[in-house]
Amino acid sequence: MILAGTELGPRMNVNQREWMTVVDDHDGGHGDVQDLRKMPSRMRVSPKFVPVLDPEFLPASLWNRSFRANVEESGKPVPLAMALERADGSVSVFRTTVLPHEGPNIAANERYAERLLKFLLWQKGAYRVSIGGDPRIARFLQSVYSPNGGRAFDFNFMGDRVYGHPMVIEPTGYDRAPAEREAVAPLGRHLEGCRIGFDLGASDRKCAAVIDGEVVFTEEVPWDPSRQADPQYHFDGINDSLKRAAAKLPRVDAIGGSAAGVYVNNEIRVGSLYRGIPQKLFDQRVRRLFFELQEAWNGIPFEVVNDGEVTALAGSMALNDNAVLGVAFGSSLAAGYVTPQGNITGWLNELAFVPVDYREHAPVDEWSGDAGVGAQYFSQQAVGRLLPAARIELPNEMPLAAKLVEVQKLMAAGDDRARKIYQTIGTYLGYSVAHFADFYEIRYLLVLGRVLTGEGGDLILKVAAEVLQEEFPALASSIRVHIPGETEKRHGQAVAAASLPSLKKH
Predict the structure, then answer these.
(1) pLDDT digits (tens, 9 = 90+) for 48-75
(2) Which residues are registered as beta bridge partners of 359?
(3) In a domain? residue 13
């Protein structure tokens, strides 16, 4: 990761401390993991850097590299394929190898396969997963990703809520795994004509009028969507912003937008903005809200995607380059990706739920019930979680956003306790960028969000750069960090959102 200047918390030599790989059942005895004492004795992880406030952190990047090294050293690699199918017929395939599935290797294989599938599900999404390889691994994953298994949340979320099909995990031969059929969305970079771009946030909705790629009007309007039980509130609010922008244009040729949540072909599947709406009303009115808005605007081209995807697209357009992974450290962890070919994918890219810490008793995400996932390490939640270890006392009832403001004030005043929080998050980030690079081709890492503002954000990136340089030098030299300026953040996001629809296909 190319970034000038580095600073790091405690550093350890390889031989100074070793992590034996651990496995734990965080879900109250669902039987989805094996006794850590049965792990191969060679499975050891030796971090060179330890988060100053969280010394038990066990980087997923190092654990997986140790596992793969064991597979190679065994001389008996066993092929394993995971094919993830989505409702549009697209299929993503991940091929790897595991140890011979016997004796102490069983626990390591199961840990590797379960965490790998977890990452792939939240990166790419799927309602049907074909496991090509040893059928015992497939049966294990079937038991974990099931209504009563340790990953019941993921099973229900991916199936009925996102793709509208019951989730299925099925064994197949390695050579009979479905072929990859990646569908990339030809969205974005359409600048011709008079367009409106909007972004729906938790506290305000942003809207812009754009003519041939030039922003001629922007506006932010406060709103409180998550506490509203009436879907009409959402329709009226969004439509009001669109009308305000339209008043600044001679005509409206297309409308593009972004919002937090999961969107599939313009349908709202899941979103925190709509959590105040009862499920029955959500299904009746909210799910196809943007189709209703499109109809109100005479059926003109209308496209809406996840806000992380638009952020990554905006970065790609500003850089005039591709292979951009965008991450935003806010109330949670948002992400988006532009492929090396310059396309937005149909993947989920919900890195808030991917595992980054493989330790025993890792912090548990309160929504999904899983441990060691991204939101607990790269968001306001991470800052709040680290406050006790930093010996910073703030009222329990204080919102996380307000706690972050207090930590930022302490950092600006030179408080070493606040500094340690940012050093810790920086160490997390350095190891996790290497983990993300196992699944994404990354030329640029686009970083933004409130946690990364100010001196603390600078320190996070400096620490992450040194971790990468020492532990993963090849990645450090190939990944560049891009921090968007205020103009790019305001206008770039609006232009990228407005550029989503193509006029030609209509």
Answers:
(1) 999 999 999 999 999 999 999 999 999 9
(2) none
(3) no
Distance between CA atoms of 434 and 440, rounded to whole angstroms? 10
Specify whether the CB–CB gap between 425 and 461 falls below 8 A: no
Residue 219 token pair: 């506006």
Helix (H, G, I), strand (E, B) or coil at 79: strand
CA distances to 20, 39, 63, 126, 503 from 42, in Å? 9, 8, 12, 34, 58
Q: What are 187's two structure tokens?
A: 């969205």
More confident residue, 27 or 92: 92
User: In which element (H, E) is residue 93 found?
Assistant: strand 91-98
Helix (H, G, I), strand (E, B) or coil at 335: strand
Q: Are residues 366 and 464 in the same domain?
A: yes
Closest CA to 21 of 358, 353, 501: 358
- Which structural domain, as residue segments, surrounds residue 227? 194-252+254-300
* Dihedral (CA of 439, 445, 450, 451) sign: positive
pLDDT in tens, 340-382: 999 988 899 999 999 999 998 999 998 899 999 999 999 999 9
- Extract the tokens encoding 419: 């500094």
CA–CA gap between residue 151 and residue 156 (Å, rounded): 9
Domain assignment present for residue 9? The answer is no
CATH number at residue 233: 3.30.420.40
Name the E strands within 182-281: 184-185, 194-200, 204-211, 214-222, 254-259, 262-264, 267-270
